[in-house]
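does this look right to u?? glutamic acid version
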Amino acid sequence: MNAPVFRFAPSPNGEMHLGHAFSALVNAGMAVQTGGRLLLRIEDIDVIRCTPDFEAGIHRDLAWLGVAYECPVRRQSEHFDDYRAVLDRLIADDLVYPSFLSRGAVRAVISEQEAGGTAWPRDPDGAPLHPPMERFLSQAERGRRIAAGEPFAWRLDVDKAYARVGKALDWTEWTDETMTATRRETAAPQAWGDVIMARKEAPTTYHLSVVVDDALQGITHVVRGRDLFHATSIQRLLQELLGLPQPTYFHHRLILDAEGRKLSKSFRDTGLKALRDLGRTPADIRDMLGF
Ligand code: GLU
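got this back:
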């Protein structure tokens, strides 16, 4: 049997904090326990918010923590052609459609319905679902508006996509990091509505590039925070549509601040660099995280 392959996949859009350290250390620990490999993937498709300094910080902080990963490191911004090719398949299969609605227009549709007393459906993160009315624009109308240079995003027609798969989707989830037991989780991709697959600035989005890369890099075990648990539903749907292998998953607990909130990249006191500057050692960090 081939060795398990894990990945730690941060976005270099801020300083690494205790939450990142926890995720990296859980991945590293599970890789050691299974005799597996650990890859690092830099998820920098947002070329505006991601910076070389933050990326350098990821390498520096992982080295400091003693988390070793294989080289070369995959940087998503260097592989837009790979994502574009997969997007082109989704376009050819008629599973995505161009959505021209501006944010303002979407807000107007939603407030009109909510003013009438009907709550607008929300996704698992609490954001309103995208109004799917442009699923039915004619090809002629789409062509005309694209040719006229109207900005648009490619959105997945989630109902059509789910129907195309033609079966219920689920995945294997490890119950904890000791990897002694698994359970089946049911995917509910429709809960996300018509998610964006590509924007005008980039031929990909998080969901599309993550499934492409997990497959290209031969990832067998996706280990990441609970905040991405529900994202797995969309990713399983894309894997099935694209004929990609399905990894097993473990969504670990999140590191919360004293008020019970998820850590954010702007909380200075939990940044690894700030903690190091205060004299904390890698052993202190492991202690703080309960290793
Ligand atoms: N790049 C994502 C993040 O920093 C993680 C993606 C993943 O692990 O699937 O939140």
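The chain has a mean pLDDT of 95. idk if thats expected tbh
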